[in-house]
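Re: your question from the hallway

Yes, I did run it. Sequences:
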Amino acid sequence: MRNRLIAFAALVAVSAPQLGGQSPRRVNFVSCPIVQDTPTVPCWLSEYEGEQYYLGIQTDISADFDPPYLGHQVLVEGVVSDEPRVCGGVVLKPVAISPLPELDQSCSVIRPAVPQFTVPFAPRPPGPSGGRLAFDPPPSSTAQLKPPYPARSFELFYDVDMLVMGRHSGQLTEIFNYAQKIPSAHLKVGAFRGATRLSNGRVLTERAGISKARAEEIAELFEGAGVARAKIDTIWRDDPEPADGVDDWRSRRVTVRVEP
Amino acid sequence: MMATLASSCLLTSLMWSSTIAAQAQRSSRWWSPGDGRTLPATVDYTDPDGAVGILNTAGAIDTKGHPFFEPIGTNGRACVTCHQPSDAMTISAATVRERWRDTNGKDPLFAAIDGKNCPNLPQDDPASHSLLLERGLIRVFLPWPSRKADGTRIDPEFTIEVVRDPTRCNTDPQYGLTSSNPTISVYRRPRMAANLKYVTAAAFGVSPFIVKNGQPAARDPETGALVSMNMMADAREPTLRTQAVSAAATHLQVSGQLPSAQIDRIVAFESQVYAAQRMHRGAGSLVEPGGPPALGPAALASGSTGTLGNNTTRYVFPMGEGWKTLPRTGDAATDARNAFRESVARGHDVFFFRTFWIRDAMHINSVGLGNPAKRTCSTCHGMHMTGMDTVYGWMDTGTTNLPWAKEPPVSPWATQAADLPLFKLTCKATVAPHTFLGRVIYTQDPGRALISGKCNDIGAIVMQQFRGLAARAPYFSNGSAATLRELVDFYDRRYNIQYSEREKEDLVNFLSTL
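Structure:
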C-alpha cells in the first residue's frame, strides 16, 4: 500500500466520496503502469478494460503517492471520482497501489509530453525544489501525549508479498520513539497475509508465509534499533484475510501495540 | 661521430637531469610515512587541471610523531600512504604508478595484505599489483557472511558464486570464499580523508530507521548517537574512530589495540583538513573575491553541513551568477579564461537543472520517486558542498552491477582481459527479488549487500564527494572511469541522457573545478 502509512489511514480511506448517496464505484485490477510525460513532472496512469486511470504524479519523498515502477505490474485499488480527467486518465481517489514483486519487462511504456496533458497540481518541479519538500510531514500521533503514556496501537501497510521498505521508516521511528518514552515498554506485533478481490472477481492472495516473515522482521528491526527482544511478542495469521473488494489493501498489514 | 656522441651524451645527461628533477619534484609531493615534515596550514599541489588546495583549519601540522603520518603498524604504511595531500587526501592511480617506478615496487603502499591483487601472488611482479597500478584499487577483504555489531553472523538473502576470478583471490584455498575463513575480496578506491564534517554530519534524513530500506540505522558505539553511514563504500564503519581502528588493523597491520590518544589525533586531523581545487589551468584562480562561493577549500571549511542542496535556496554547489556571462576584452588569455568560466557555469546548470529519466537505480527510484523518475544529477548528488547523498548514501547507479558496469568486450578479437572479479548473486526463493534487477544479479562488487545481506543492496555503493576531482583520477569505487569525461560518458550511456557534446564538455569543466 503506497499511501501514507499512518495509523489513521483507514479513517481517510473509508471516507471515500459518496456520489448521490450511492456506493462509490471501485476498480481493483492488476495492469502495467504507464508514464505520461508532461512539461513538468510525469503522470502515472494504468489501463483496465479499455479505460485509462490516473494514479498520481511524481513529486518527492514527502508525498502520499509513492509512484509505481515500470518493469513491474501494479495492483491498483481505487475509487472512481468525478474530478476532471488528468493526463487523459479517470481520476481514482483515494487510490492504493502496489507494484507486484516479480519483474515484467512488458511494462515499459513512457508516453512523450504532448500539449493537451498538463498536471493541475505540481508542488515541486522535476528538478531542484524551491527550498522545501512537496508536502509537510504528517503530524505525529504521539508527540503531544503526556505521561503516563497509554497503550497505543499502530498499523503498517505493505506492498503485495513485500516486507518493510524505506517508506515505513517514519512510522517505525514513531513507534520506536513512543516505546522509548515508556519504561519497560512491551511490543506486541501481529502480522497478516493480505488478499484483494479484483474487479474481475479473482482474488489476489499474498504468498503463504508472508505474515510470519513480516512479524519476525518487525521484531528484528526493533531489536536492531535497541529494544530488548524479550520485550517483543510476535503472532501471525497465515490464513489470508477475507477480501470483499473494499479497501482490501488494509489486509496487507502488521499491527504493533506498545504497552506499558 | 664525436659530435654525435657528444650530442648523445648531452641528451642523455639532460634526460638524466630531467628525470632526477622529476623524481625530486615527485618526492616532495609524496609523503612517506614518518618523514617528519610540517604540513602547512595551506598548501597547493599541482594536478593535471591546475592545483588542488589543502587547508588545515587548525594551522600547520608537525607530522613528526603524528599517528596519521607515522608508520604505526607492522608493514611500514601510515594513513598518509593512501591519503596523500597532493592527491586531495586520497591517491591517484598516476601517483601509484610513479611510486612503483621510483621505488621499484618496494614502497609499503604495495604491501601484500591489500596492495596486491591477492597476498600470495609474487610480490615483485607488477602484474600482482595490477589493480592498484592501473585503477588505484585497494583489496578490501570481508568475511562472508558478514557479522552484525554484536558479532553474530547475518543470514544473507542471497548466495554468491564466483564467475570470474582474474586476481585468483576469491577462489584461493587460503583467502577465498571456500577457505576455512570464508572471505570475499573486492577492489575499491580509497576515499578522501578530507571535508569529513560533511561526510559524518548526521542531520537531514537521519532517523532510527533508514529512509531507504527501513532497516535500523547504525549508531556510534561509544555515544549511541545515530550516524550518517556515509563514510565508506559499503557503510560498514559508523564513525571516524571505528574506521581508524579498522583501517589500522587491516591496511597498516597494527598489532594489538590502537591507543585511544592516537585515535583522537587521527580523528582530529581528519576533521580539520579540507581539500578542493584552488587553481585551474582554464578558469584561473577559483577563489577570487566575487567568484563562485562553492569553490576552494576555504569554502568547504566554512560551509554548512547536513544540508540538502537539491534546491534553489541552498544549491548543491553554490556558483553565484558571476561566471554566467563574462566580457570579451580582446586579450586572448583573458577571453579564453572567461570563456572557460562560462563553460563551468553552464556545466553547473547541466548538473543541477538538466532533466533525464533516472531508471532502475536502487535506493533512488525506490524511494518515493517511482521508476523512472524525471530528475537531474542533483537528485542523487544532493548534499550541499559535496554532491554526496545527505545520509545513508548507498545507491546502485550501475557502476558495479551488470549490465551497466564497464566490462571489456568478449570476442575472438578482444585484446583486453577482464581485470575485476565477477560474482553471480542469486536471491533466495524465500525473499522478494531485487526490485530492478530480478533474482539473479552479476556484479563486480556487491557493495552494501556484503554488509547487510539484503538483495536490494546488491551493487549499492555509498556516494563519494565531488571535490578535488582533478587531483585523484580514476573515478567510481572500482576506478572504472579513467577521466572525468569517461565518468560523464558512463552516465550518458547508463541513463540514455543524450547529452550534447557541449553539455559533456561543460559538465567535465565544471567537475574539474570542484
